Amino acid sequence: MLNSTPIPPTNCPYCLRKMNRAGGPDPAARPFPGAFVICMKCSEISMMNDDLSLRKLTAEELDEVRNNGDLQHQIANFRGFILWRKKMEAHGKN
Ligand SMILES: [Zn+2]
Fold first, then answer.
1. How many separate domains does the chain show?
2. What is the pTM of this model?
C-alpha cells in the first residue's frame, strides 16, 4: 500500500522529524527534486530540493496543491493512511 525509498537524512521543515525515507501512496512514485513529500508525523507537505533535502512550500506551490485535484486526492489518501497507522500503533501498545 505504501511505498518508500531511502533518501539522504533530512528533517521535516515543519515538525523537524528526522526523515531518511520518502514515500507516497503511488508505488510508481520515487522521490525527485521538485516532488511533493508528505511528512509521516505531521502530514504537512514539503518540497524536495535538488539535493533531496526538504523545504516548506512557497505560496505559489501551496496554490498549485490546492488547485490540483489529483494531488488533493492523493494527499487525502495519504493522510488517511497515516491516521490509520497511528491507530494501529496505539492498539499495539495496549
Ligand atoms: Zn513533519
1. 1
2. 0.74
- pLDDT tens readout for residues 53-88: 999 999 999 999 999 999 899 889 888 988 898 899
- Cα of 28 from ligand 1 centre, angstroms: 23
Alpha-carbon separation of residue 94 from 53, 84, 85 (angstroms): 36, 16, 15
The Å distance, Cα 37 to ligand 1 centre, comes to 10
Give burial (CB, 10 Å; 0-12/13-18/19+) of 10: buried
Residues with CB under 5 A from ligand 1 (ion): 12, 14-15, 17, 39, 41-42
Higher pLDDT, 13 or 26: 13
Domain assignment of residue 70, given as a range: 3-90
Residues 6 or more apart from 90 whose CB is under 8 A from it? none
